[in-house]
Amino acid sequence: MDEYFVNPLVLAILVPLLGGIGVAICGRIPNLREAVTLGTSLVLAAVIWFLLPVVLAGETIEFIPPEMVEGIGFSLSLEPLGMIFALVASTLWVINSLYSIGYMRGNNEKHQTRFYICFAIAIASVMGIALAGNLLTLFFFYEALTLSTYPLVTHKGDAKAKAGGRIYIGILLTTSVAFLLPAIIWTWTATGTMAFVPGGILAGAVSGGAVGILLLLYMIGIGKAALMPVHFWLPAAMVAPTPVSALLHAVAVVKAGVFTVIKVVVYVFGVDLLAGEASASWLLYAAGFTIILASLIALRQDNLKRRLAFSTVSQLSYVILAVALFVPGGIIAAALHIVAHAVGKITLFFAAGSIYTASHKTEISQLDGIGRRMPVTMTAFAIGALAMIGLPLTSGFISKWYLVMGTLDRDSMFALMVIMASTLLNAAYFLPIIYRAFFRPPVVVKGEADDHGEAPWPIVLALVATASLTILIFFVHAPLLALAEALVKGGL
Prior knowledge:
The chain crosses the membrane at residues 6-26, 38-61, 81-103, 115-142, 167-188, 195-220, 232-251, 258-276, 282-299, 319-340, 380-402, 414-435, 455-483. Its main location: membrane. Pfam families: Proton_antipo_M. InterPro entries: CPA3_Na-H_Antiporter_D, ND/Mrp_TM. The protein is mainly alpha-helical. The protein is built from 21 helices and 2 strands. It has helices spanning 2-6, 8-25, 30-56, 80-106, 112-130, 135-153, 159-191, 209-221, 233-236, 242-251, 253-269, 271-275, 282-299, 304-324, 328-359, 370-373, 375-389, 395-410, 413-439, 457-475, 478-491; strands at 61-63, 76-78. It has a two-stranded antiparallel ribbon. Helix 4 runs parallel beside helix 15 and helix 6 runs antiparallel to helix 7 (159-191). The radius of gyration is 21 Å and the shape is globular.
């Protein structure tokens, strides 16, 4: 029995679950409850960072309990891609926990104990996805993540929140049960295994048009990746409090989606199989279509969180576009963009929540001159926006650079044109916000107080931390690049 608790992969899942129990026990004492939340996040981050040198050294850590039925069982395994996802989620949970304390208290949110419990269960589910050693394990934790985040989406409990929650859980459960599960069953019947194997398991088991159909089932089934037309859940979920939006868009849900896309392409299909099948070429065009259309929709949104939501839909498909190049450079770019988007987008959502907490403003048209009252918040927002555009000195430049290199390796003019057009669109819907905040005079509305300053210090500290990470990764990305290159070396 000790091996269940000593194995670090099991610990990575147990720590947030135990933290959730601790939060429930301490729920009547807010300071202690939040100390447990923050402490648990720090312990999890320590466990994951402890494993980084092991993975960089090329060693493998596994946990394989007895099979439930012959040939069917759960397994955990840590490989470079899972290490990247686990690092992102565990590190940002620490910062998000600090932010949540300031936000939930600053807005006098109800049901805070339930909020922290569900958050902990969601992070445990993320760890299970990151460390999954086969399709069964991944599917189990993928569904657990959907169910554990539903109460967070509907946290406010009003009619709008409930309606958004129904769209959220309806689309995610329908896509996974109607498409992802049949794809997994098809894979198992064709190959006799659900294990993740470097180079894939489907070569020789499916061919021709069947490859394209199976790929379609997987891509639609992985609804959390928000590939159009199954993206509607993401803007609908914006009814949630900002810490939840940050969880959905940066730390957990959408990253679970694009992580699963990369995992399936590399370890189930195999890049060589997909590169040689014309029936798989549709994915590149579907990703490009999503990138451009979501950017155009974002451009028309006045609500700040909705603009960020459609930006996320677009940015997620950068990962899918990179994967769909079916070349090593594309896989590296996809892995790096998981990190780049996470730190940049969480900064943007943190800033949106900071604006709401301090001023109760939600619309972009209301933000004239707000940078003068909230200079730290809006400077952090500007850094996150520049990262999403992909400009130098930010994490977004690194992933976009490798994405461009991947398009040149594939000699894909279509992908290159999509990247260029979307970069201009990103600038078109982010730069005007920065201009409004810093270069337009404040608009004083009669009857409204406009003498606010920055949000509470935990919120400001958290968004400064993520904005700093966005810049730091530009200069110190060698470990992440080493993991991405190890993924290519060991998985292709």
